[in-house]
Amino acid sequence: MIAAVIYDMDGLIVDSEPWWRVAESNVFGRLSKAPSEADFEMMMGRQIKEVILHWHSVAPWENFSVEETQKEILTEVARLVKKNASLLPGVMESLEFFKKKNLAIGLASSSPLHLIRDLMQHFSLLKQFSVICSAESESHGKPHPAVFIKAAKELGVDAQNCLVLEDSFNGLISAKAAQMKCIVVPEKGSFHQTRFDIADLKLSSLKEFSEEMWHSINR
């Protein structure tokens, strides 16, 4: 039985994924060249340091510094998201639904912890989560399951009794590798990709989630 729910953040709670892409395009484009849409799709859900190291291997630039590049990208992401992004449909309704079921609620994201807290505070959601975990403190980011396993441990719930809400394929693989159930809400252009069919439930929006779906997944 499900005892805890773990949310992803970017692309699931907040419409921030496009602004990550803008920020990375701006910074990488200035340093070497901007990634393509296919590049972004492949890197989606990974730690920012992994993305930087990968892109430097693809399109190297001089005076390379992971720390400085990360600082530039994160500053730009925070600015763009606060200015342009909004909560995605169904987020508040789903939080209320799970609270009424007396479930533990956590958040596990590949974004750095200070950015997660900054954005959740900005959107008045910080107090909704009893546990917030970042993959930046793990040896590997998604699709490795480490960040979800850590969240389950901090919530005091066995991994097999956790439900993950995700939007990315890397996040879905991460949840499954942690032996957790997963509801995936892919971005519109990826919804019909068959690779997402391994999820326990696939939705076009969290607004679709219902009591009937809850009973079908919680067994």
Please name the defining characteristics of this protein.
single chain; 219 residues; alpha/beta; six-stranded parallel beta sheet; 9 helices; 6 strands; 11% strand; globular
**Strand line-up of the largest beta sheet:** 3-2-1-4-5-6
Average pLDDT, rounded to a whole number, is: 96
| Beta strand % | 5-15%
Number of helices: 9
Query: What is the H/E string?
Result: EHHHHHEHEHEHEEH
Write down the overall geometry: globular
Low-pLDDT residue intervals, each spanning 5 or more residues: none
Q: Report Rg.
A: 17 Å
Determine the structural class based on helices, strands and strand pairing.
alpha/beta
Task: Give the distance, in angstroms, between the N- and C-terminal Cα atoms.
Answer: 6 Å
Biggest sheet layout: 6 strands, parallel
Overall helicity: 40-55%
Secondary structure: number of strands:
6
Summarize the SSE layout with pairings.
Blueprint: E1 4-7, H1 17-31, H2 37-43, H3 48-58, H4 66-84, H5 91-100, E2 104-109, H6 113-122, E3 131-134, H7 146-155, E4 162-166, H8 169-177, E5 181-184, E6 201-202, H9 211-217
Parallel strand pairs: 1-2, 1-4, 2-3, 4-5, 5-6
Short description:
This protein is 45% helix and 11% strand. It is an alpha/beta fold and 219 residues long.
